[in-house]
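Escalated from tier 1: NAP holo job.
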Amino acid sequence: MAWTTTRGTEVPPLGQGTWRFGEDAAHRTEEVDVLRAGIEAGLTLIDTAEAYAEGRSEEIVRDAVGDLRDQVFLTTKVWPSHAGREDVLRSLSQSLKRLGTDWVDLYLLHWPSAKTPLAETMAGLVDVLERGLARHIGVSNFPAALLEEAHRLTDGRIFANQVRYGLATREPEATLADVAARLDTSLMAYSPIRHVLGPDIPVNGVLADVARAHDVSPAAVALAWILRPAAARWVVVVKAARRAHLADNAAALGLTLSAAELDRLDRAFPASGEDLTLQAF
Ligand SMILES: NC(=O)c1ccc[n+]([C@@H]2O[C@H](COP(=O)([O-])OP(=O)(O)OC[C@H]3O[C@@H](n4cnc5c(N)ncnc54)[C@H](OP(=O)(O)O)[C@@H]3O)[C@@H](O)[C@H]2O)c1
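Tier 2 regenerated the structure:
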């Protein structure tokens, strides 16, 4: 299952995150196995970054993807300390080696840089796009005004902006979602359940109710809520190291919430009205 962006690219709506993968060598086999099972379950977008476990997360992704490279929409990211024009190319070349591939589907600037002018980084991203090392380019953690700036600097080539979004973290709705829709930029939601179903967070009653009605887990409902029709079309990146969590999450692909359920969830998790704040590294 994939949705087609207005730019004509097919993107899987539900992807697998890999933050913290590769940090403990003892978990390597399980991490490779769960990613591979996720691809087989239809979670064919994989999100990684050069910064995750100092590149070892990318190596785990390589082992999981193996001969399925053509079925996977692969995303990785350059850390802002490597945001100079030449550094972007160098970082991506190293990522490609670790990933065992000649190209990524999407290459993102991980966070705004506090030191490197945005124009330099955007020139570096356009370079890798033009060399065919990345099929698409984008940014991450960009509030609306900065996204507009990136869009202008790349002649409209920013394909996606990856930001924190979920039932309990709705800041992108304040301004960013409308701006992204206008610029034809996809939005990718990260940490979609961490702030809704963390170990110390009691399961919200409405969420539990809706989950029971569909015989799915609260996590599946939290993910399906992001995939609802809305101003911007979201791609969701969720991380599961456990197979049981993966199975819960995959159920979101077949789950459609009714207007009444969306309305109940909206009231149970009201948006704060606050905008995404700018953080740079
Ligand atoms: N661009 C950025 O700056 C940025 C920042 C943060 C994250 N990301 C990306 O987005 C991905 C997802 O975000 P995230 O890892 O922060 O948070 P997340 O996916 O919202 O949550 C992951 C946590 O939730 C647990 N979990 C997974 N499925 C569950 C389920 N069905 N029920 C209950 N708990 C479940 C996981 O446990 P187990 O692992 O034990 O299964 C893990 O502890 C990251 O891995 C990364 O690829 C990007």
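Strands lie at 3-4, 10-11, 14-17, 45-47, 73-78, 104-109, 134-140, 158-164, 186-190, 234-238.
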